[in-house]
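> call design_seq(struct)
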């Protein structure tokens, strides 16, 4: 008798284009590209979020939570924080969510969110910052007093390490 697995879990990988924090560009006539970044990012490199900016990633260090891996060669102008790369995110899906107008301090890049109340401008409920890590990671931030209808992208089902 053939064995069949009744529970097969599969989902499409979550990919996103994100900006690369590579430091300043230095011109060098002897370099292959005419110069180099201070800390260039490469394909297949593990990355973490730069929490002071939206959609900005850097090379992960030992103390950083890894958000994903670069799966394309970074491309774009030779300007600090201007090149982008496709990133394989370690999570289930990215959703734009509405932030609650009373969310003290807003939501910062890298923070977790929690469901707050139903309703909202779009009728899909509103969310607020969660002080404990819960498997969600904000990929962008919003101000301390978000206006009604302010949305930010959040990675849900974060499986980083």
């Amino acid at each position: 008798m053939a064995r069949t697995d009744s529970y097969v879990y599969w989902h499409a990988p979550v990919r996103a284009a994100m900006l690369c924090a590579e430091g300043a560009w230095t011109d060098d006539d002897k370099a292959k590209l005419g110069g180099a970044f201070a800390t260039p990012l490469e394909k297949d490199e593990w990355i973490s979020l730069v929490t002071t900016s939206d959609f900005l990633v850097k090379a992960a260090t030992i103390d950083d939570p890894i958000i994903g891996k670069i799966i394309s060669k970074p491309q774009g102008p030779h300007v600090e924080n201007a090149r982008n790369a496709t990133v394989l995110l370690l999570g289930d899906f990215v959703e734009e969510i509405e932030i609650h107008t009373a969310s003290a301090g807003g939501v910062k890049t890298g923070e977790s969110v929690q469901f707050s109340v139903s309703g909202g401008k779009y009728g899909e409920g509103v969310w607020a910052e969660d002080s404990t890590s819960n498997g969600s990671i904000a990929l962008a931030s919003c101000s301390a007093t978000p206006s009604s209808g302010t949305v930010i992208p959040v990675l849900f089902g974060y499986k980083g390490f």
